[in-house]
């Protein structure tokens, strides 16, 4: 079948890499893609907000499966657009409709959903400019630290954790009065701080049933030892050693199942991936947030651990027959190290030539922010440039291979964290 994958990051390169291995895949198109997807699939230069252009392309190329990588087209209603068209509505489409995408697009919506279905999460209240006064009082009575979250999409910058009442009040004012994050902070969720270790659980649902993918932990801070500014993600490890069977059973019973049941009960059209960001608080799981897509760079660690044919899996999801397929995992560790442009997540330069990817033999090189110039050279084109994934029987072995790969690739001002996975033990990961 012909397949359209939407997106241009390391996540999409990893999905494309896996889908290309399927005998069911005829032609794979990636819209817009990057220099890595160009090597294994056909990149398509259509803007993601050009829904009419996407529709035309899908019909023209007889696309039989659409997969949406990033959240933005979903929040903007790409699935709804397909649904409203006679010609497109029966094409299997993996990605939720606009209402379901609100689980990521609005933190207030997702908190209300969790409260309604009694899914464990930090206690919270939502305030607007109208209720600013109550919000300020709420902050005063709250224990510290306190967490303030812009309701809408804020490119990973909308969450402020404050240790200080005056600072928290000031931040609340900036968000509501001065529109610090534009419309995204028209509402602010104020919540309790949860102390623990974070991990991500990924679920694929067809709206009726669900399948759980391998767990992963990502590394968000730019600096080693989890210091410095937040980034899109500097590395990932799968599986997560501390997410043992007992913990995952709690996650399934208290979080995944009520979430899927809640979506059904609300009549929310949800076919797609659901990313559940969790905090492990002394062995008890709490939801930090939902995302309506796979994580990046977690995908680059999770997908290479699937034994299951990804096209087959996604087609079952898209045709609401997920009950007919199981996910099989490769019982090895996968570690991903992200190479970034020096300066990221603040200002950085682009356009540097990338060398050495061909010499990496023991690891998979996924492209993220890359492009090809007319001469066919691969150049840096973003903050996060490449994600290097390696598998190994032990965490240490996977890390050694990924680090060796990261070392071989060269571009000016390359930076990466050398401590990915070093905080995790070996013991319990593989059951
Ligand atoms: N209630 C909380 N307690 C502790 N840390 C939190 C809490 N909420 C968010 N965080 C931290 O802030 C990060 C960003 O919050 P999140 O809700 O995931 O927003 P987004 O990814 O949209 O920026 C989380 O990954 C987590 O590290
Ligand atoms: Mg998050």
Tell me about this structure:
The chain is α+β, with helices and mostly antiparallel strands. Among the domains are: 2-96, Rossmann fold, CATH 3.40.50.20; 124-192, Dna Ligase, domain 1. The chain has 13 helices and 21 strands. It has helices at residues 10-20, 35-40, 51-60, 72-75, 78-83, 98-105, 107-116, 132-141, 165-176, 245-265, 298-302, 310-318, 395-408, and strands spanning 2-7, 28-32, 42-43, 63-68, 93-94, 124-128, 146-150, 159-162, 187-192, 197-205, 210-212, 217-223, 227-238, 272-281, 284-291, 333-341, 364-367, 370-372, 378-380, 384-392, 414-415. A hairpin with a 5-residue loop joins β18 (370-372) and β19. The longest helix has 21 residues, at 245-265. The two termini are 36 Å apart. The model has no long low-confidence stretch (mean pLDDT 96). The structure holds adenosine-5'-diphosphate and magnesium ion. The site of adenosine-5'-diphosphate (ADP) has 14 residues, from β7, β9 and β15.
């Amino acid at each position: 079948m012909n397949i359209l994958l939407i997106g241009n990051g390391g996540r999409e390169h990893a999905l494309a890499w896996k889908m290309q291995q399927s005998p069911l895949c005829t032609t794979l198109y990636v819209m817009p893609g990057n220099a890595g997807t160009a090597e294994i699939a056909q990149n398509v230069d259509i803007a993601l907000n050009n829904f009419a252009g996407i529709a035309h392309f899908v019909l023209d190329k007889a696309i039989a499966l659409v997969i949406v990588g990033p959240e933005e087209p979903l929040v903007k209603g790409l699935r709804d657009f397909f649904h409203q068209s006679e010609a497109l509505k029966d094409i299997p489409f993996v990605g939720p409709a606009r209402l379901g995408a609100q689980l990521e697009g609005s933190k207030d919506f997702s908190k209300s959903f969790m409260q309604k279905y009694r899914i464990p999460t930090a206690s919270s209240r939502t305030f607007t400019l109208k209720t600013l006064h109550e919000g300020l009082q709420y902050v005063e009575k709250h224990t510290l630290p306190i967490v303030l979250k812009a309701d809408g999409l804020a490119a990973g910058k909308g969450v402020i954790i404050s240790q200080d009442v005056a600072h928290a009040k000031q931040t609340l004012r900036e968000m509501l009065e001065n529109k610090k994050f534009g419309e995204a902070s028209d509402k602010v969720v104020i919540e309790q701080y949860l102390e623990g270790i974070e991990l991500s659980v990924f679920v694929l649902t067809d709206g009726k049933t669900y399948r759980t993918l391998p767990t992963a932990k990502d590394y968000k801070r730019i600096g080693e030892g989890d210091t410095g500014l937040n980034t899109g993600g500097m590395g990932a490890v799968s599986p997560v050693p501390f997410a043992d069977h007992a913990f995952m059973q709690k996650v399934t019973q208290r979080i995944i199942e009520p979430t899927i049941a809640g979506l059904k009960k609300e009549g929310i059209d949800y076919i797609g991936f659901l990313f559940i960001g969790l905090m492990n608080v002394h062995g008890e799981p709490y939801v930090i947030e939902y995302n309506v897509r796979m994580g990046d760079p977690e995908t680059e660690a999770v997908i290479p651990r699937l034994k299951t044919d990804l096209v087959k899996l996604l087609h079952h999801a898209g045709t609401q027959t997920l009950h007919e397929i199981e996910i099989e995992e490769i019982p090895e560790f996968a570690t991903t190290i992200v190479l970034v442009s020096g300066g990221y997540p603040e200002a950085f330069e682009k356009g540097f030539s990338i060398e050495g990817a061909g010499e990496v033999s023991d690891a998979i090189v996924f492209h993220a922010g890359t492009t090809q110039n007319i001469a066919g050279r691969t150049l840096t084109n973003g903050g996060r440039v490449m994600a290097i994934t390696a598998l190994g029987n032990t965490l240490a072995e996977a890390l050694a291979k990924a680090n060796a790969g990261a070392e071989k690739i060269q571009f000016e001002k390359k930076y990466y964290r050398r401590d990915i996975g070093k905080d995790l033990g070996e013991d319990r990961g593989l059951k």
